[in-house]
Write a structure and sequence with these properties.
The chain is of the alpha/beta class and 694 residues long. It has 30 helices and 19 strands. It has an 8-stranded mixed beta sheet with strand order 12-11-10-13-14-15-16-17, with helices on both faces. A 6-stranded mixed beta sheet has the order 1-2-3-4-6-9, sandwiched between helices. Helix 1 runs parallel beside helix 2, helix 5 packs antiparallel against helix 10 and helix 14 crosses helix 15. 49% of the residues are buried. Bound molecules: 1,4-dihydronicotinamide adenine dinucleotide. The site of 1,4-dihydronicotinamide adenine dinucleotide (NAI) has 23 residues, from helix 14, strand 11 and helix 17.
Length: 694
């Protein structure tokens, strides 16, 4: 038998129980069994008068970071956590919360008579973020401890709080630098009080419940778990504890097998598996202490700021004095934002700005930095000229990166001395906020360079995904295909607002036409001009988007007219756009038909899925889960649907293939069945969510 992850020993008249299940002490079957054994030992020692308390803590940096979500895919294994907590609740136990006590870990703490938090404590019940509700008493015991007004928003939003706030809210009883020592010294008034199970039911809090429902409808749109959690907490005020607990357990077991929880777990694990692949992990990344960012506009200033926040000294290079001044102002705006949100004090912000940022222009010498990231205009010649200068001025070890969205990084890097040190680092706007980065492997990029880029993005707190070279890499290539599918729907009979509403109801953060109005129709127009010839015989050309720009000069919000009309910033359907679309259909000789929202959403998702399979097959993405991460973190794809590859798995690969085949039959210039999808269906292959291609 392997050693139990739960140790216990008697010292100072206490049974000290330590959960030691690295890295973060999650509760799996062995931990539950170990805790029961510890309860046995405690009962014996109490009966013999050898101890007067049980002190529970976690080894290493966490208390208990949650339940082991890997167990969620199978049937619940005995012993179940509620049983364990039931036993624990009868003992004079104190939780010494040394680190993260989340989900099942916090429920464990709630089963104790008292909770003492160390400086690193982080507590909460974030189950809804994994599509479930607390399953071992959280929705019933936390309201008894702190009242429904506090418990409802915490649990329904899955918010976690640090030590000081936890104390303020009453989630813990005391703070201590050494929570174990404090638990050993804890006086009897806390130790001898009744367990939470014997506390009175909380008073109803209809206002808090209504506010949480409103929050769920807007910020957690489409998700079941937050609403279920609110209902369960309301029941805590009405029902005897035992009944509340059994309802909660039933809801937990049902939700954890459902599609939303499966999708959220998939993304959770995809995030943890993101970044450098196994071969790269073997390599020692180069140290990055200094960076140069070329271009201080929308992207460059935000990238520079993100680097500076991670402790890297940044030289920002602009083309002239006026642009340098704008770049300085951009960076100052980010610092002001951090100060006004209370993230930084005014003094720290000023000191950091002075120490870490050096904005310059002109042809002077450049400091010998470890990495240079280019974010100048999206123009091949401009970018090449910038790299020629950087290459000549910087040491031969400096990594060179381009933030280009659509240009070919191999063309951008032509002529640089050491192309093995060159790669793409495609950030997303706003770059100091958005977590996604596509790490683009160019023709000669060395593994060492990639490993260094992944180490850097990790340090910036980003989620990095490796991408190969193609037009638009992973994300923008899929976006282009998605928009084309929308335009085909337009000419066949749908209207932009119908498409937007349908995909938003499906869960997308924003419809594609509303997004284009925000980013500007001219940007997408310029891209189309650059790559897709109108007369490409293999491609179905829909003229509507081009005419919006060429004939109507409707460029989006910046002209108060795009796919929508804007009055006081509010979008309304545009009759002029409707007329233009109808004229295009008539001209093409197409009878317009109506599309139900479900059909629209399905077709739009099929476009994303089809392109995702092509991308995987071409090796542009390394893992299918990486494509899911790109869509969820860069394009407003609902996290609770798990990304397009997970969605394809949920819909069934055979059904997806049948739908694509039907569309391809009708419109072969827009659709085809991706060969990889076909071969996976024919082989009865592993679901797409787990497909790996190296
Ligand atoms: P921007 O127009 O806001 O900024 C470009 C900056 O580069 C300007 O401040 C300009 O003065 C400066 N610049 C131009 N030539 C220069 C030179 N020779 N030396 C130094 N500085 C020079 O453009 P934005 O939006 O920041 O885009 C920059 C790059 O990032 C482009 O390649 C773009 O495709 C890419 N990108 C843009 C995203 C976005 O959402 N805006 C997202 C991801 C990538």
């Amino acid at each position: 038998m392997t050693e139990s992850p739960v140790r216990h020993e008697i010292t100072d008249r206490a049974l000290r129980v330590t959960i030691d299940n690295p890295p973060v002490n999650v509760i799996g079957q062995a931990v539950r069994a170990g805790l029961l054994a510890a309860c046995d030992a405690a009962e014996t020692a109490l009966a013999a008068g050898r101890i007067d308390r049980v002190v529970l803590t976690g080894a290493g940096r966490a208390f208990v970071a949650g339940a082991d979500a890997r167990e969620f895919d199978g049937p619940a294994l005995e012993p179940h956590l509620p049983e364990v907590l039931d036993r624990l609740a009868r003992l004079p136990a104190v939780a010494a919360v040394n680190g993260a006590a989340l989900g099942g870990g916090f429920e464990l703490a709630l089963a104790c008579r008292a909770r003492i938090a160390g400086p690193k404590a982080l507590v909460g019940l974030p189950e809804v973020t994994l599509g479930v509700v607390p399953g071992a008493g959280g929705t019933q015991r936390l309201p008894r401890l702190v009242g429904l007004d506090t418990a409802i928003p915490l649990i329904a939003q899955g918010r976690t709080v640090k030590a000081a706030e936890a104390r303020e809210l009453g989630l813990v009883d005391a703070l201590a630098d050494d929570p174990v020592a404090a638990a050993l010294a804890l006086g009897s008034e806390l130790l001898d009080r009744p367990a939470l199970d014997d506390w009175p039911a909380p008073a109803p809090a209809p206002d808090a419940a209504a506010a949480a429902r409103r929050h769920a409808e807007t910020r957690q749109r489409g998700q079941i778990a937050p609403l279920t959690a609110i209902e369960l907490m309301e029941a805590a005020a009405e029902l005897p504890l035992a009944e509340g607990l059994s309802r909660e357990r039933a809801a937990f077991l049902e939700l954890r097998q459902g599609p939303q929880a499966r999708a959220l777990r998939h993304i959770f694990f995809a995030e943890r598996g993101a970044g450098a692949g196994p071969e790269l992990k073997q390599l020692e990344p180069q140290a990055i202490d200094t960076a140069l960012v070329a271009g201080g506009g929308t992207m460059g200033a935000a990238i520079a700021y993100a680097l500076g926040q991670a402790g890297i000294r940044v030289t920002l290079l602009e083309q002239d004095a006026a642009a340098a001044e704008r770049a300085r102002a951009n960076i100052a705006t980010f610092f002001d934002g951090a100060v006004s949100r209370g993230k930084l004090s005014q003094e720290t912000a000023e000191a950091m700005r002075a120490e870490r940022f050096d904005v310059r222009h002109g042809d002077g010498p450049l400091p010998p930095v470890d990495i240079a990231i280019e974010a100048v205009f999206e123009d091949l010649d401009v970018k090449r000229a910038v790299f020629a200068r950087l290459d000549a001025a910087l040491p031969e070890t400096t990594i060179l990166a381009t933030n280009t969205s659509y240009l070919d990084p191999d063309a951008v890097s032509e002529g640089v001395r050491a192309p093995e040190r060159f790669l793409g680092l495609h950030f997303f706007a706003p770059a100091h906020v958005m977590k996604l980065v596509e790490v683009v492997r160019a023709a000669h990029t060395s593994p060492q360079t990639l490993a260094t880029a992944f180490a850097l993005t990790r340090r910036l707190g980003k989620i990095a995904v490796e991408a190969g070279i193609c037009d638009g890499f992973i994300g923008n290539r899929i976006l282009t295909r998605y928009r084309q599918a929308g335009d085909v729907l337009l000419i066949e009979g749908a209207l932009p607002w119908e498409i937007d509403r349908a995909v938003e109801a499906f869960g997308m953060a924003m419809g594609p036409y509303a997004v284009q109005d925000l980013s500007g129709l001219d940007i997408a127009y310029a891209n189309r001009r650059r790559k897709t010839p109108k007369d490409d015989p293999d491609h179905r050309y829909v003229p509507i988007a081009d005419r919006m720009v060429e004939e109507l000069q409707r460029l989006g919000r910046k002209t108060d007219a795009g796919w929508y009309d804007y009055r006081d910033g509010k979008p309304t359907p545009s009759p002029a756009v409707e007329t233009l679309i109808e004229a295009a259909s008539a001209e093409a000789g197409l009878p317009r038909r109506s599309f139900a929202p479900d059909e629209i959403a399905r077709r739009m998702m099929l476009a994303i899925i089809a392109e995702a399979f092509e991308i995987l097959e071409e090796g542009i993405a390394r893992r299918s889960a990486d494509i899911d991460l790109v869509l969820v973190h860069g394009y407003g794809f609902p996290r609770w649907r798990g990304g397009p590859m997970k969605l394809a798995e949920e819909w069934g690969l055979a059904a997806v293939m049948a739908d694509l085949a039907a569309l391809a039959k009708e419109d072969p210039k827009s659709w085809r069945v991706p060969p990889l999808l076909r071969s996976m269906v024919e082989a009865g292959d592993a679901p797409a969510g787990g497909a790996e291609r190296e």
